[in-house]
Amino acid sequence: MTLEIKEMSKAYGGLTVVDRVSITMEDADIIGVIGPNGAGKSTLFSLVTGFLDGNGGDVVLDGKPLGNASAVERAQAGMVRTFQVPREFAHMTVRENLMAAAPGQGGENLITTFFRPASVARQEKEIAGKVEETIRFLKLGVVADTPAGRLSGGQKKLLELGRALMTGAKLIMLDEPFAGVNPVLIEELSQKIRELNARGIGFLIIEHDLGALSKLVSKLYVMDRGKLIASGEPAAVLSDAAVREAYIGGGAN
Amino acid sequence: MTGFAELLLSGVMSGLIIGLAGLAVTLVFGIARFSNAATGDTMTLGAYGALLGTTLTGSLIFGGLVGLLAGALAAVLSYVLVFRQLANRSPISSLLASIGLAFFVRAGLGLAFGHNQSVFQLDIVRPIRFLDLRIQPNDLKFAAIALVTLVIVFIILHMTPIGRRMRAVADNPLLARVSGIAPRPVMFTLWAMAGAVSAIAGIILGMKTVVSPEMGWDMLLPAFAAAVLGGIGHPVGAIVGGLVIGVAQELATPFVGFTYKIAVSFIVLLLVLLVRPRGMFGRVEGVR
Known about the structure:
Chain A folds into two domains: 3-88 and 167-248, Rossmann fold (3-Layer(aba) Sandwich); 92-150, no CATH class. By secondary structure, chain A is α/β, with parallel strands linked by helices. In chain A, helix 3 (94-101) packs parallel to helix 6. Chain A has helices at residues 41-48, 71-77, 94-101, 110-115, 117-137, 153-166, 183-198, 210-216, 234-239, 241-248; strands spanning 3-12, 15-25, 30-34, 58-61, 64-65, 79-81, 171-175, 202-206, 219-224, 227-232. Chain A is built from ten helices and ten strands. Chain A has a six-stranded mixed sheet, sandwiched between helices. A four-stranded antiparallel sheet of chain A has the order 2-1-4-5, covered by helices on one side. Helices cover 73% and strands 2% of the residues of chain B. Chain B is mainly alpha-helical. In chain B, helix 1 (2-32) packs parallel to helix 5 and helix 2 (39-57) crosses helix 8 (183-208). Chain B is globular and about 60 Å long. In chain B, 52% of the residues are buried. In chain B, strands 1-2 form a two-stranded antiparallel sheet. Chain B: The chain crosses the membrane at residues 7-32, 60-83, 95-113, 140-157, 186-207, 219-248, 255-275. Chain B: Keywords: Amino-acid transport, Cell inner membrane, Cell membrane, Membrane, Transmembrane, Transmembrane helix, Transport.
């Protein structure tokens, strides 16, 4: 897959929170986006996933410009995001959460459900198979029938990743996947991300845990006050003076 | 004692009708997120549809199906023409529009069918004697229809892909969108279901009593009360809530008189909102 985020911008009145940010991903890659709080990272994700309408810019996924496609259309095109604070269908079980996200369900309406029950049942079986696979992959077996609202923070992060996988996403955008997650699970999550990337899924990751992130990504983009201020290999970027200034603050050395 | 039991029984019957109407209210509220004041008049429309269908085909069953389809179609149309246009505005816009729609439907039915009461020609059957109780065989059929309706709604919501998606949208609309769940099939199904359920409630009410343009509007407050009592967005809760209100209304009749029994549902509604706003089965909204 390829991704081109072209000159994305968002302004509220006179305040530009995302200022002509461009990010390119050639081939399925793992790319990190870092920056201090309020740098516009999450807003960028919202713009890319069609959650917010931008003031200019475009996203090109696999050579196809998305223009002003809606959030649903972007998700169906293969771009799925997670959230800083994990979100889930709280009153549905883990299994149902995953099943709901599977695309192209023949039983999309009542008419097919009632008049073509056999084909709907076949598709259900297929989806259920994929769900079991995802549950095994993420080791969510013990909580498969638990309402998602009752999961621990770490389990919710895994479920978010699972939901993104079930949509058949080509690009998964993770918003602080390691926040509030214990070190063992961080290692495990990183491993899952690498495995999925090896299968051809691209990742764009916002994260404050620079240690874990720089081990994972091939490239870092740094945002500060809405602008991209640096990009490149993690080691090079992190030793950049301007980045240290913006990210760690003036007092540090 | 027999008197009490018979009041209880007739309370259960009206409770099932109120519960079905409450079910329609709660379905729409859970997914489209507003209180649909046109629910009552969709009931009326269903009853007139059934009346017309019965006259044309001579069969109560076909007539009932005509009424059911009329209700479903009207509800889907109301979504396409009105509520979809208001979907991105505050829920108050939809609520107000639904009140307008309710007036429109009622006036339209009055214009088309007149304001006189009409009745279904049901065969008169000797009541069944059970212990000391007289039970109308038709009531048993109506109760069965109400329960089958509830079961079908439950099956659709919990055992079909579209139902799963409906619950996902009800649970977290924003997450549903980013997960690629298209809203349109969900909304069409929701409105068709809510319309059909309302129509069934209206048809049963019409068969048990009389059909008039105002019949459904009078059911709106009890229906809202049932939905709130059961916990808004909770289908089984709506039916149980309806039963509680129906029974409370009937049992109160000897004390407050027939005219004021509707006040009972208002009192129940007030008490629930004051004491347990999330209802019997409900969950706290907005805390995630």
